[in-house]
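hi! just following up on the protien thing from before. the input was this:
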Amino acid sequence: MAENTTASSARRKLSWLSGIAVFFVGLMVWGVATAQPGASYSPELALDLQGGTQIILTPTVAEGEQASAEQLNQAVTIIRQRIDGSGVGEAQVSIQGNQNIVVAIPGTPDATTLQLIRASALLEFRPVIEQGISQPTAEGTAPVDLDALSNELTAEPANASDPAWITERIRAEFDNFDCSVPFRDAGQVDDPTVALVTCDEYYLYKYILGPVEVQGASISDASAGTVTTQTGASTNTWAVNLEFNSEGTSAFGQVTSRLFGKPSPTNQFAITLDGLVITAPSTNAVITNGQAQITGSFTQESATVLADQLKYGALPIGFEVQSQENISATLGEDSLRSGLIAGLIGLIFVVIYMSFQYRGLATVVLGSLIVAALLVYLAIAFLSWRQGYRLSLAGVAGLIVAIGITADSFIVYFERIRDELRDGRNLESAVEAGWKRALRTILISDAVSFTAAVVLYLLTSSSVRGFAFTLGLTTLIDLLIVTMFTHPLVQLLARNKFFASGHRFSGFDLSAKQASYKGRGEFRVSKTLASGKAEKSSKEAQKRQTIAERKALAAKGDSDE
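and the predicted 3d structure came back as:
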């Protein structure tokens, strides 16, 4: 009954592993067949293997001034967050010449990602003083000479929503404003202490906005989600949820306290990105807890885009695009081919060593490595599709290192089984006892590898993260393979006559292991072993004694005399 239970458990584990593989294969087939965005049978490649797009950004500062190192470093961090938030992996963002920022993106980025990078994205909250529909300027209408009009305030404004901010010049500019005509210079930075005339990002509405009251840097988080009712039920209406830091919470609380209850449009606050209004929601409540929700005619996609703009939009300075061009792979197909050849050579040497050392058990090693390679490939292809992961040369190096980790697990397991055979167990019993002893060692070894991968991923640059990610992924898959394929397969082979008989090509050749160390200076020697071989095996087994045991054995010999 126990034998049948062991075999059933082994087959069940193999079935579960097969089911996992079939599930992911089916998922990939469905994704490709239905033309899901990003679905492919092959993983996406990173910049160093595929090439991509390079964008050079130049900071817009006053003439004679330069952006500080702190501003540039902060901008690099925010731009990298934007790219990561858009789902693009293995991008490179760096400072060039202490002034420019170079952004290199693998493949061909979509319009949303390019917009997030190009936008200088100085995010600001301004109250709406007036709003109107942009109308094209009538033909034959003489342009207004704005420079001839006064820009002096007629009265001291009481707050940022006060119409007193509208000077003679701003009134004329707004009345004659045509959003269809270019009205902003590239990288233009607006004065945050005065009113602003601008349009929405679709150039349909024009606004007079008061001074900036909340900076975009005050947003600690932004996310898209569906609106929930008072009873907690989820609706199909999409919204953008905002969270402010302590400074933003205080400032936003004061703004909503003033705007709440005012007539439209003065109850609205506009969120501007690079001087254009991306949304201008009305104030429906006084919000003092730092958590706001923007509702409107959002789809899931538009809500996600707005959330990304708000979350990653607060650059410390403005930027303009100096150049954008396609770049070739920095290492290319030759490096990828070399890496794969190196991995194949390593795999061949592992199989040769296993065949020489463990003979028939090399079939288990080869089968385990094939299944592990299949699962790793499926995992990387799936992550490329769903998470935007891209395989870099550093990631390939992580996969090659993983061959050694997996081989180490086999060696630990097989040697534990051999130890049990030396102690006189039959093969099936040795397999179970050896597995219990080996599993602890394998878990510790994999835990160390996985911890190293996590530390590398969290504390190093993006170029090393590719290595760390694949190292961590393959370590987890190694544990899955050993527990759900290697061990169950060995359990089944232990019941096979070829392996159970201890055939010399099975890897469980008992005749060469009949002299075994029992402990306390004693050895077990097979009665059927020839005297010459017994002496040789005993000498090999004696090497396993500790110094204390050798002294105890010597003392015992002296007392016997």
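The chain is about 50% helix and 20% strand.
The two ends are 52 Å apart (CA to CA).
cheers
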